[in-house]
Amino acid sequence: MTDARHHRPVLDPHHSDPDRAPHDHGSHGPVAHGAPPDWQDAYTRAVEAARPEPGRRVVTVTLEAMEVEWEFRPGRATRAWAFNGQIPGPTIEAQVGDVLEIHLTNRLPEPTVIHWHGLRVPAAMDGTDMVQHPVMPGATFTYRYRLPDAGTFWYHPHLNETVQLERGLYGALVVREDDEPRLDAERVLVLDDVQLDRHGQIKPPGWWIESHNGRVGSTRLVNGRREPELGIAAGQVERWRIVNASSARYVRLSIGGRPFRILGTDGGLIDAPFLTSEVLLTPADRVDLAVGPFEEGESLEIESLRYNRGAFGIPRRERFATLRVGPRAPSHVRIPGRLRHIEPLAPGSAEPTREVHLGWKLSRAHGVEFTINREIHHRAAPCVVGELQVWDLVNGSPVDHPFHLHGFFFQVLQVNGDPPPFLSWEDTVNVPARGRVRIAWLPDDRPGEWMYHCHILEHHAAGMMAHFDVVR
Ligand code: C2O
Ligand code: CU
After folding, report:
1. Cβ atoms of 401 and 311 closer than 8 Å
2. Which atom of ligand 1 is nearest to the CA of 428?
3. Closest ligand by atom to 25 CA
4. Does position 287 have pLDDT exceeding 90, yes or no?
5. How open is the CA angle 161-230-333, to the nearest 5 degrees?
6. Is residue 426 within 8 Å of residue 440, measured between CB atoms?
């Protein structure tokens, strides 16, 4: 089972690890860091409180973060890091109301922790170094929590991210409910990119342009393989759960220019299927699509269309995969016209209760620093359980930032004054360059330490994050 037995006492990693990457978020001087002294009590309470709902079960998963030789393309081995030796790590699948119990063993040469991106877990299980001690090399740690929501989520380390995610440590986490829409097939597509040197090895984090833009690797991956070929049967409609695990790449997804239906986003299903032929996935975004039907013999490019996020360099249209349509198969698709009822949290005109400024500045010590409310590692005012939050995310910089809130879903009320095309639950939203996004969310009864940050890993590492408490 689980308890603190699995957890070896650790040294304070911020003083014991001289090898942290130069741009790691530990490098920015006097910041509020580290788990509170009583973190282990909060952890033990959370472990004990995690019971499956009646009729549900405990799903046990073992994850080993390890070094591996991985072939992004056949015949070319790259030294990578991976969960259970595969990129992406295993897709974790469970039902709403199940308890997930994850035994993580760290076989990396450096500490790690795992964050469950998008899951509404207790603060103690959020997997950041603000709520627990990092898991040291050789140590094992158990996460245990109940799954309250259906949707497409993902997991990734929350330490030295520009190295650990880039090398391949990430995986999808799918939570289903009993009455999901019925499609002919389902697949999970995790998008990523890596920057390889001429020996086929992953480049270490760079400086200057890369710390400004974030890393956009020229090798584009779907489920750990470079520009693969996918197949679909003619006449069928599939559910694609797509995760953008890239460090910095915005994917303006197109499937051969054909229409598809959006069924869900970060926080599960939306009100009603939304017909479109492209969708923007910022880093960390997820989307569930109904794709097809197509005709036998067709071949479609799955690509990212040109998107200008204000970064240096010329945005281009780039391929992620090719979809080939095979022989016809019968279809039994049933997609209801209404997928779910989402109650609006607040009208679009609601007065903001807080402003969050995303910006940057130059510092003598670190070059470009990315800031929240003009500070790196900003410590934001606490939020009170049950008090509606209406936040204006104000981007004072000339580049887009994907804003991510830990632990709670929000609704987007406005983007530059306009309502979004549909109502949804999100945990990541793009804040356009010089733009303003209004969101609403409700601190539910999960007090503790949380954070929000830019999900461009290099911006996060360069300080664009904030910590705050949820209090009763
Ligand atoms: Cu996927 Cu703190 O994030
Ligand atoms: Cu950013």
Report:
1. no
2. 1
3. 1
4. yes
5. 105
6. no
pLDDT band at 34 (very low <50, low <70, confident <90, very high): confident
Cβ of 239 below 6 Å from ligand 1 = no
For the Cβ of 117 lying below 6 angstroms from any atom of ligand 1, the answer is yes
Residue 180 CA to ligand 2 center (angstroms) comes to 34
pLDDT digits (tens, 9 = 90+) for 205-222: 887 788 889 999 999 999
Comparing 28-37, 113-122, 314-323, the range with the smallest average pLDDT is 28-37
Q: How far is the CA of 96 from the centre of ligand 1 (A)?
A: 22
Query: In the block, which residue shows the tokens 């281009």?
Result: 316
Q: How far apart are CA 120 and CA 296, in angstroms?
A: 42
Q: Which of 423, 344, 455 is nearest to 390 (CA)?
A: 344
Ligand having the closest approach to the CA of 212? 2
The structure's pTM equals 0.93
Q: Whose CA is nearest to atom 1 of ligand 1?
A: 117
The DSSP result for 380-422, as a single string, is PPPEETT--EEEEEEE-SSS-EEEEESS--EEEEEETTBPPSS
What is the pLDDT at residue 408?
A: 98
**Does the beta carbon of 309 sit less than 6 angstroms from any atom of ligand 1?**
no
**How many CB atoms neighbour CB 77 within 10 A?**
12
The tokens describing 44, both together, are 């033990």
Write down the residue that tokens 């470009």 correspond to: 368
What's the token pair of residue 118? 């998008």
Give the tokens for residue 418. Answer: 């306009």
**Which residues are bridge partners to 404 per DSSP?**
428, 453
- Cα(427)–Cα(411) distance, rounded to whole angstroms? 9
Q: Give the Å distances, CA to CA, from 255 to 124, 162, 187, 324.
A: 40, 29, 15, 11
Q: In sequence order, what DSSP letters do the residues of 237-249 get, joined into one string? A: -EEEEEEE--SS-
DSSP letters for 177-221: -TT--B-SEEEEEEEEEE-B-TTSPBPPP--THHHHH----SEEE
Ligand 1 neighbourhood includes 438 CB (under 6 angstroms): no
State mean pLDDT over 25-50.
76
In the chain, what are the domains? 4-176 (2.60.40.420), 185-328 (2.60.40.420), 354-471 (2.60.40.420)
- C-beta 158 within 6 A of ligand 1: yes
For residue 315, give the nearest of 429, 399, 402, 373 by alpha carbon.
399
Identify the CA nearest to 335 among candidates 103, 179, 198, 145. Answer: 179
Question: Is residue 418 classed exposed, middle or buried when 0-12, 13-18 and 19+ CB atoms within 10 A define those classes?
Answer: exposed
CA of 400 to the centre of ligand 2 (A): 6
Nearest-ligand number for the alpha carbon of 467: 1
